[in-house]
Amino acid sequence: MHARTEAASEATPSWPEDIFNILQRFDVAQVPYVPDAGHSQLIERVLGA
């Protein structure tokens, strides 16, 4: 394996947290969603807020 590939696979995506922080900043109270494995981290954050 290449070092670049290994580093990419070890990094956790930050976009769910980034989106969640923006939703909080603008006091978003309702978030519609369609369950999707790719969005699971963001969905969990929204449901736990």
Summarize this, please?
The chain has 49 residues and is mainly alpha-helical. It is built from 3 helices and no strands.
Radius of gyration: 14 Å
Overall pLDDT confidence: 83
| Strand count | 0
| Most strands sheet | none
Shape type: globular
> Percent of residues in helical segments?
55-70%
Low-confidence stretches are none
> What count of helical segments does DSSP give?
3
Strand content: under 5%
Number of domains: 1
Q: State the order of secondary-structure elements, H for helix, E for strand.
A: HHH
Key attributes of the depicted protein:
single chain, 49 residues, 3 helices, mainly alpha
Write the layout of secondary structure elements.
Elements: H1 3-10, H2 15-25, H3 40-48
Helix pairs in contact: 2-3
Description:
There is one protein chain. The termini are far apart. By secondary structure, the protein is mainly alpha-helical. Helix 2 (15-25) packs parallel to helix 3 (40-48). Helix content is 57%, strand content 0%. The protein has one domain (12-48). The relative contact order is 0.16.
